[in-house]
Design goal:
Layout: H1 10-28, E1 32-42, E2 46-55, E3 73-79, H2 90-107, E4 114-115, E5 119-122, E6 128-132, E7 137-138, H3 139-142, H4 152-174, E8 187-189, H5 191-205, H6 215-230, E9 233-235, E10 237-239, E11 248-253, E12 256-261, E13 268-270, H7 272-286, H8 294-308, H9 317-337, H10 345-372
Helix pairs in contact: 4-8, 5-6, 5-9, 6-9, 6-10, 7-8, 7-9, 9-10
Length: 373
């Protein structure tokens, strides 16, 4: 299920395992035998375990109809503070994710093609979420089929998966009513988004890089102008918060494509275009790779938007703010990553120039549109 592993201290894993063992004892009682850790690691905001539960011979009556066999596999997720956000409240984040999963599960209950993991419970201390383990492949890995020499058949399958992911998002947003535990506001302010963008710009200013003349200040002015144009408010819908192929598992069962979205850590209410812009900007970012076919990446974007059921709204300030913000986030990730590994200094410099060029082009087009109004 997880996209990436980071180094995790053994004592932290042992502590998480003990937490999960206590939860299993509470739910299975004397039927519980022991836990087997199949894999472990950490992501940007969480520490995780892939577990197999072993019960005593003949044990029955497990917590879910989907988990009535000995050796059921679970996914345990513990919220942790991010290196740039040490004020993280793990219990609050886990409670928010459990609430989002509960609402989404009800929305997708009758659909086997669009799903979320089954939330089995939260540990007594409120810091760890226990989920059904998800079989399937991470969709992000399937995007490699967009390479110039990639198999046409495999790429066609990836295109179908992207369409299904768009359908999932459309249905998730359509079920925003009744999810007010995530936010009581029917409309949301875009001001906090711009504030986060300014924090990102400040972090970029601290990086040793030969920025284009007044690039960062011009980008800040561009975002402020968009905010003023749209009035700073927009209709609020359910937002996943980190929506993208890295948080999606896919599988084809009996000829039916299935898409399961996980990791609702940042769920809340936002502009409907924020999650869409996250996917669009990511596919744009992948075009920096010389091994990926830009035309194929465009087809994946079109398949996603087709599944979503709406075209990207050209000239809409709300959507433009969301796309600018997500593009800025990509720039921050690229800048902080630096020329490491296979991304040597020259290739990193080229990627930085190309991505900054995309943002400059966006600012120029926006200025032209405002002059025509």
């Amino acid at each position: 299920m997880p996209r990436q592993n980071q180094r995790t201290d053994a004592s932290e894993i042992k502590s998480l395992e003990a937490n999960c063992r206590d939860w299993c004892r509470e739910h299975w009682g004397e039927q519980f035998s022991h836990l087997e850790v199949l894999a472990s690691g950490s992501r940007e905001f969480s520490r995780w375990l892939h577990l197999r539960v072993h019960l005593l011979s003949g044990a029955t009556g497990l917590v879910s109809s989907q988990h009535r066999a000995n050796g059921t596999e679970l996914f345990a997720k513990q919220a942790i503070a991010h290196v740039r956000n040490t004020t993280c409240d793990g219990s609050e984040a886990i409670a928010r994710e459990a609430s989002a999963l509960s609402h989404a599960a009800a929305a997708f209950a009758a659909d086997a093609t669009c799903r979320v993991p089954e939330c089995l419970g939260v540990t007594r201390d409120g810091t760890t979420l226990i989920l059904q383990w998800l079989d399937g492949r991470i969709l992000d890995g399937e995007l490699a089929t967009a390479k110039w020499w990639g198999s046409r058949a495999r790429f066609a399958r990836t295109t179908r998966y992207m369409h299904r992911m768009g359908s999932w998002l459309q249905r998730y947003q359509a079920n925003s009513d009744g999810a007010n535990e995530l936010s009581i506001a029917e409309s949301v302010s875009l001001v906090p988004l711009i504030a986060r963008a300014r924090d990102h710009l400040q972090s970029l200013a601290e990086i040793e890089y030969n920025w284009h003349d007044s690039f960062l200040s011009r980008l800040a002015e561009h975002l402020d102008a968009l905010l003023e144009t749209c009035g700073g408010q927009c209709a609020g819908v359910l937002s996943h918060g980190d929506f993208g192929p890295w948080n999606v598992t896919v599988a084809t069962v009996d000829g039916v494509d299935r898409c399961t979205v996980f990791d609702f850590y940042c769920a809340g209410r936002q502009s409907r275009w924020l999650d869409v812009a996250n996917v669009r900007s990511y596919l744009e970012f992948l075009q920096l790779s010389p091994s990926l076919n830009g035309r194929r990446l465009g087809q994946l974007r079109d398949a996603f938007m087709s599944g979503y059921g709406q075209a990207w709204p050209q000239g809409c300030s709300e959507a433009a703010i969301c796309l600018s913000y997500q593009r800025l986030c990509r720039l921050v990730d690229l800048a902080h990553r630096g020329p490491v590994g296979r991304l040597g200094k020259w290739r990193w410099s080229q990627a930085m120039q190309n991505w900054c060029g995309l943002l400059l082009k966006e600012m120029k087009e926006s200025r032209k549109e405002s002059q025509q109004r």
